C-alpha cells in the first residue's frame, strides 16, 4: 500500500515539520553567526572576527558569575537528588506508607506554582529570618525547586522496574542495604543520572529566583547575562551566549545518550 | 501489607525477610522526612507568610508591618485620592487581563504547533522518531534567557526579521521589539517543548487500529482527527497546557526584555513591587491573585480529567 493511502498520514505534515525544526534552531544559529561579527553593532555585519570570544574569556565578572552558578547548581543537585531518591524509594518501595499520595504532591509542588510567587515568598522568609548569606539562600531555594525534576525520572525508573530482582536478592539472604547497593541502585542509575542532570540544568537556568535572592557577591550566570542585556547589548554577549549554547547542547547530548542507553538495556 | 497486590497479582512477602536495620524498617518515615522538611521550610512556610504579608500594611520605609489591612488588594482596583476617596483605576486590572490573555494565547499557539508535530513524530519509524524527539528536546536545554535573547536579536533594530521585511519594501530602521507580539514570540518559543513532549507521549500510546476503524466507518481525516485522535490525546494536551500556562502566567523574563518597561505582566509587576517599588503588601496581593488563577485552572482540569475518566 502506498503512503498516499495510509489513513494515518496527514498531507503537508512533512514540510510543516521542516519549518518547525527550522523555527526551533534558527534563533540559536542567528546568535552564533552574529558572535563572529567584528562590528560593535550586532545587526550590522562588517567582517568575521573572533575578538569577542577573547574578551568574553577574559571577563572576570562573567567567570565569577559562572563559578557562582556552578557552585549553587552543584550543591542544589546533590541535595535535591538525595532528597528525591529517598522520597522515591519510600513512595515506591516502602511498606504501609501513610500519606503516600500527599507526599508525592508535596514533592512535586514546586512544579505547580508560578516561580515568581515562590521566589518572593522565599525572599520574605529569608528577610524575616535575617539570612544574609547569598549563597546559602540560593542553595536552599534551588534545592527546593530542583527536587521534583530529580524525583520524576527516579520515580519512573523505580515504577518501570520489576520487584523480582530485589525479591530474589532478599531470597538469597542479602540484607536490605546490600540489596539496595548491589541491585536497586545499579538498576535505577540511568534515572538517577537524568534526574541529577535535570536538576543541574534547572538550577543553572534559573533567573527569577536567583534575581530576587541574589545580593552583592552572589550573581549567577543568568542574572549577569540579564544585566548585560539591560545595559545595552555588548557584542561580547553574543560570544558568551554562543559558548553557553554550545556547552548546553554538548551536555544535553551526553545526558540524553546515557539515558537512552540505560532505557534500552533494561527494557 | 499495602503493596501485596503489586502488578495486580497477589504476591507473597519473602518468607524469610532479612531483619532490616532501623532505617529500612522505617523507610517510609526516614525516606519522606527530608522532602517534607525541605518543602515545609522552602515552600509551605513561605507561602503562608506571603499570604499574611498580602493582608499586612505597608511599612513606612519599605517592607511591611504585621496587621490586618486589605489595602494591598484594594490597590489592585482602586486608587486612593489625596482626600481619601476611592477612585476606580483600570491600570492594574488591565495588566491582569493582559497577562491572562498572553498566557492563554501562548498556550493555544503552542498547542496548534505541538499537535501536528507530535502526531508527525509519533508516526515515524522508531530510529527517526527517537532522533526527532531528541531534536525537539535539545533547544530546551539552552538557558531560557539565551533563548529570549535570540529573539531580541531577531526582532530588534537591524535584526534579520526587520531586514527581511525591508527587502520587501518596508521602511528601513524597523524594530519589532517592545510590544505584546514580541513577548508572545519569545514565550511560545521558550515553552514549546513543554507542550510537544506530553502531547507526543499520549499520541504515541494511541492505538492505531482506532484510526483505521474510524476510516473504515467512513470518517475522513478531519473527522478522525476531531473525534478520535484529539479526544484520545486529551490527557497529554491537558498536562501540556498546564505545563505551559502556569509558567506563562508568571513570566518575568519575556515581558521585561521583549515587552519593554511599559508592557508589564503580573510576574514583572510582582518583581517590581519587591524590587524598586517597595510595596510588599501590594506585591504579595498580586502574587496571591496569580496563585488564585493557577489554583482555579488546576481545579478545572482535575475535574475535567475525573469527569472524562468516569465516562470512559
From TrEMBL, chain A:
The keyword Membrane applies. Gene3D superfamilies: MetI-like. InterPro entries: Bact_Polyamine_Transport, MetI-like, MetI-like_sf. It is found in: Cell inner membrane; Cell membrane. SUPFAM superfamilies: MetI-like. It holds the Pfam family BPD_transp_1. The chain crosses the membrane at residues 12-36, 70-91, 111-129, 135-154, 183-204, 239-260. Required for the activity of the bacterial periplasmic transport system of putrescine and spermidine. Belongs to the binding-protein-dependent transport system permease family. CysTW subfamily. This is Spermidine/putrescine transport system permease protein PotC.
From TrEMBL, chain B:
Residues 96-301 form the ABC transmembrane type-1 domain. Keywords: Cell membrane, Membrane, Transmembrane, Transmembrane helix, Transport. Its main location: membrane. Gene3D superfamilies: MetI-like. It is a multi-pass membrane protein. SUPFAM superfamilies: MetI-like. It is found in: Cell membrane. The chain crosses the membrane at residues 29-56, 95-120, 132-154, 181-201, 228-253, 282-302. CDD domains: TM_PBP2 (cd06261). Signal peptide: none annotated. PANTHER family: INNER MEMBRANE ABC TRANSPORTER PERMEASE PROTEIN YDCU-RELATED, INNER MEMBRANE ABC TRANSPORTER PERMEASE PROTEIN YDCU-RELATED-RELATED. Belongs to the binding-protein-dependent transport system permease family. CysTW subfamily. This is ABC transporter permease. It comes from Paracoccus aurantius.
